[in-house]
Amino acid sequence: MRRPWATSSERLPTGPEMDAGLACDFLRACARPGGGWGYGPDRDTLVEPTASVVLALAGTALEVHETAQAVSWLEQAQHADGGWGLHRDDPESGWSTAWAVQALLRAGVAGEAVVRGRAWLASVPLAATGKGADEALWTDNLRIDPTLQGWPWRPDEASWVEPTAHVLLALEPADPSVRDRGLGAVRYLADRRCAGGGWNVGNPYMFGRPFPARAHPTAVAVFALARWSPATLRSEDTSTLRAAMQEEGGAGALAWGLIALGSLGLDDPEARTRLSGLQDPGGGWEGDPHVTALALRALAGGRS
Length: 304
Hints:
This protein folds into 2 domains: 13-117 and 276-304, no CATH class; 124-248, no CATH class. Helices cover 50% and strands 1% of the residues. It has helices at residues 20-30, 47-57, 65-77, 96-106, 112-122, 135-141, 161-170, 176-191, 215-228, 235-248, 251-263, 269-277, 289-299; strands at 205-206, 209-210. Strands 1-2 form a two-stranded antiparallel sheet. The protein starts with 19 loop residues before the first helix and ends in a 5-residue tail after the last helix. Mean pLDDT is 89; it is low at 1-16.
């Protein structure tokens, strides 16, 4: 549904100006033996870049044979507890689980692996915060509600914006078993909003001084809230996102920003042109399969 602050010039375009076939060739060349991708050619297979490429390519005309191998690799890398680590040999489940679940869903693998992955995400424990003598630190200096909980990077740690947003993207709002915790995370994100809109990695203030928003955490928070609670978003969140992605200017910031805007039916033609222009002669972006996959999603309209 179009947001009230969208204008006719912000509607999604008919198509990007990029060489998608060349990008696909780059990803094919970077695929690792046994399936999956790392953060560059000849880099070890990791969950995040592997999931990112699957999200960009699965079910599209650009899909390559290596995508099916990557899905198999993700299924085999799942831990007995239902989560995923950074890589297959990482014994501790953590934030990569959200990426793996999203990728398997995009690839049409909505079976036991996804059920177990979502169950692990819903059960992640958090560190207790904001009680007793420390409560003034949270409420007065950081200006946050310490009772609100999102998700941590690793179990038993404090909540942060990015893992919270990624987990919300992996969970289903209509699932009653996770809805209460999901809505609690929505309230957490609203509480962590920066003074002028948008998000940084965590606290909007430190000892009473405001922290600026950054493109990446703002984008993933907007993307997650667009799915879970669009009414929570404010016009200043998208305006802050546009400014941050242009100021930071890297392919990752531009791609995440376009993906988030696309989830709201919005666009940034200048950022789109700028991102397209950053494509390497070899077909990728920054020589990194993860960034390349994000750019493909962004320039294809922000595929969820």
